[in-house]
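Weekly structure sync, notes
Attendees: PL (lead), two postdocs, one rotation student
Agenda item 3: pending single-chain targets
PL asked that the sequence for the first pending target be pasted directly into the notes so everyone works from the same version. It is reproduced below exactly as submitted, 383 residues in total.
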Amino acid sequence: MNILSTTPVPSDAHEIKARARAFAEKEIRPRAADHDATEAFPREVLSAAQNAGLAGQYVPAEHGGGGWTLAHRLAVVEEWFRADGGIGLALQLADFGAKVLTMHGDENQQAEWLPAVAAGETISGLAATEPRGGSDLARMGTVAQRVGDDYVLDGEKYWTSNGEVADWIVVYARTGEEPGHGSYSLFVVPTDADGYEAEPITDKMGLRASQQTRVTLDGVRVPSDNRVGEEGSGFYNLAKFFNYGRIAVAGHATGLAAAAIEEAWEYVHDRELYDAAVADNQTVQHRLVGMREEFEAARGLTWQACERVMAGDDPAFWASLAKSHATRTAEEIAREAVQLHGGEGLKFDTRVNRVFRDAKYPSIYEGANAVQRDLAYSHWPGE
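Predicted structure, written out during the meeting:
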């Protein structure tokens, strides 16, 4: 069973979605349990995805990538996350920083940094969140001070994707003295720069195959050519980037929710209780239908929001709405799936337990859902 139908998916993304599904079944799902147990970064799967033309493809075609649209990205990530959230996230984040350059970098920056990502030769990342500021982009303390033709960065980042495995990351840092959104900028920082250190965050509850790190920047010097966009444009550029990212996160949620429903369906139809299949119980049937109702509503909203964001139609509202609703729905469906498994659902090494643990994360990263509702309200269409 795979309930991720192509019905809401644009026709130009069908072929990519089919390839992502086949890849997920062959390369991701068989390795999911091992990577969840060991927390090992799935380099072999990432390499296979790059060779298959499924990773690094957010890079424009003129720089060697697939020139994927947001719809292509969404079609792929929901298949990857259905197979496994941790590995799926690791594959998606390979071009995380590259997408920032695609949207906001100049021609020289794109020519310098993007082709190697598209070719699978380098990995990029993004460092925005900090220990004290969380995901509040107006409260970040990392500083980039102009010194001659360079910037010197000092500070600490937390939950940085690919901080250790990446070859370069985009760092969000304060460049102005005045409080407010116009005091932040973005910089490309090579991870082999002097003063750069990254420590992986271990013993995570879920998404254990992906890498998040604590990054320390101690006098890291980069040329001014590595500044992405105008000085002071970082907040606004990153906000636009996150509109795209939050649609992908909604896809993380729909993929995980699909996996939870499939596991619950299979388990109640295979298990007998009092000489009858558990699925023969009407209450169980109604619970399964309720899960499917919520899933289809969340997925429909996600794909509608994808279309709106691509069209520039109130993107902040639709991205936040989809992210909040889909991730909350995935948590609820995963919890119900574990409940339907009874004691089996409590075992750490089962797929349904892994999905349950993974499903908590999307409601927190790229802005917790309370923040998403604030954003949706403040960007209410027509107001």
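Discussion points:
- Residues 336 and 342 are 10 Å apart (CA to CA).
- The domain at 236-378 is CATH 1.20.140.10 (Butyryl-CoA Dehydrogenase, subunit A; domain 3).
Action: rotation student to compare against the earlier draft before next sync.
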